[in-house]
Design goal:
The structure is a single chain. This protein is mainly alpha-helical and 300 residues long. The chain contains nine helices and two strands; from the N terminus they run αααααββαααα. Strands 1-2 form a two-stranded antiparallel sheet. A hairpin with a 6-residue loop joins β1 and β2.
Length: 300
Amino acid sequence: MTEVIANGVDSKGGSLRKGSDPLAQTVRGKMQNRRQKLNYQINKEMRMRAGAENLFKAATNKKLKEQVALELSFVNSNLQLLKEELEELNSDVEAYQTDSLTTSVPMIPLGLKETKDVDLNIPFKDFILEHYSEDQETYEKEIKNLMALRQAMRTPKRNEEGLDLLYEYYNQLYFVENRFFPTDRHLGIYFHWYDSLTGVPSTQKTVAFEKGSVLFNIAALYTQLGAKQDRSQKEGIEKAIDNFQRAAGAFRYLTDNFSHAPSMDMSNAVLNMLIYLMLAQVQESVFEKKMIGGDRKSVV
């Protein structure tokens, strides 16, 4: 089972892979932190709404029903305001654009999906002992490295290093799924992810949901890298084209292999829309490249 964990560890057994500083005061960092807080607030309000709805159904006293109905209206109002704030945050594309003074059409990037911590230590150790009949403590360092890798990929840097981090964790999930997630047994591990567009939380026990969510973030990071390229230069345009094409490819792979995800942002309808959006941004970049090169006849 040693291939389950990559060899990216330091001399003390800690992971060499690091995410970006979640407290970094960059504009994009602030936006992602705000998105995370909104996701948690939306989750809290949804739990409150579910509780109020259950109480309203169970209540027999008319006065109590009126009080619960009033509370439910307040919760629904707060939830709507939070969703509108998240929608406004997601529509802010300026923070992801290049700093070039040359005017160009702003490209549309996507925010990353947020996720909660997952404790793999006890479930994995128990499974190693019961299923493989091996000393569970032997793999303590490897399990910690995997958890450190997952923690790091929650806040990837907005560059190639961040993509490498996401890809590394995504590839590790292939081995994890084969070793620790048999179809006839559940280890009590749940993966929590928030919809990148609405902030609504979703929970599943399958690794497929985890893989799909990480792949979505890979595609989203490609959109951010494509949007920040300096498209006043040919090289920047080519990089933008490459990133948007890779984003479209990742979204296409999601539609073909992860079509049963519970969150709206990973539904077929939304993913197909994102594919066409990325391809449209590719076409816009191709148009800009031809205009820079003076090839106006082929454009016409």
